[in-house]
Amino acid sequence: MMRIGMGTTCVYPLGLEEAFRTAAELGFDGVEVMVTRDEATQSAPPLAALAEQYGIPVLSVHAPVLLLTHFVWGRDPRIKLERSAALAAELGADTVVVHPPFRWQSEYAEDFLRIVRRTAAATGVTVAVENMFPWKVAGRGMAAYSPGWNPLPMDCDAVTLDFSHAALSGVDGLRMAEELGDRLRHVHLCDGSGALDDTRVFDEHLVPGRGTQPVAEVLRLLAGSGWSGSVVAEVNTRKARSGAERRDLLRETLAFARDHSSVAGG
Predict the structure, then answer these.
(1) CA 20 – CA 33 distance, rounded (Å)
(2) Sign of the C-alpha dihedral, residues 24, 28, 30, 36?
(3) Which of 17, 29, 159, 181 has a CB 3.0–4.6 Å from the CB of 3, allowing a cystine?
(4) At CA 131, angle to CA 105 and CA 252, rounded to 5?
(5) Is the dihedral of CA 250, 252, 256, 258 positive or negative?
(6) What pLDDT is attached to residue 186?
(7) What is the DSSP string of 161-215?
(8) What is the pLDDT of residues 130-140, one digit of tens each?
(9) Which residue in 217, 218, 205, 220 sits closest to 253, CA to CA?
(10) 3-state DSSP call for residue 134?
């Protein structure tokens, strides 16, 4: 059965407990924990305690692959991925989200797909490679990821589809979902308004339905096929002027997901 979760980043810059509290109050099925410099995101006991306190499970773990988490668990991206998968397994979460390597992580990039497959086999956790997007610097394209930003042609077993990243890439999320087929194992629920250009805000993560991606169509496709992964809200609420406004944005996101994932079977 499809589960609708909420990423802990949805309440940024508020803390981890606020994320669990908000997800539980609004009726999400679980949370995705972004591993950050906050030590509470890095070990199972505090996360398990929050899950028990608020009655909401950890569905997935996002590995610390952002530039801001460069020093979390050291500098070796292989260790970061392995520890993320071990954390997920300890919490009973079934998925780890990981980005493709940056091109300057040449040794890791060379063995990335083998490391992903080996880590998944060793832990029993799905390691789903997330679609990213091309970078532009001073108006010129830059190859930031290796083997690339798009996991579609990669020899990996599981992929995370992020609609904001798809928008920045000029990719149609529905077509990507169809081409991925059974390899689509996880979804970041958000939206984007168009392809990257010199003036566009970097990575929007809009509330679904407020951009141009076919988010509703993908949800209906997955629901109609009996897909059993997690759809995890990853929307930017930093401009919310109050806690009530933030909850309204997340409530709208959850309602969108529920509405369009319950259409299956007509």
Answers:
(1) 10
(2) negative
(3) 29
(4) 130
(5) positive
(6) 98
(7) EEHHHHHHHT--HHHHHHHHGGGEEEEEE-B--S---TTS-S---BPTTSSSS-H
(8) 999 988 665 66
(9) 205
(10) coil
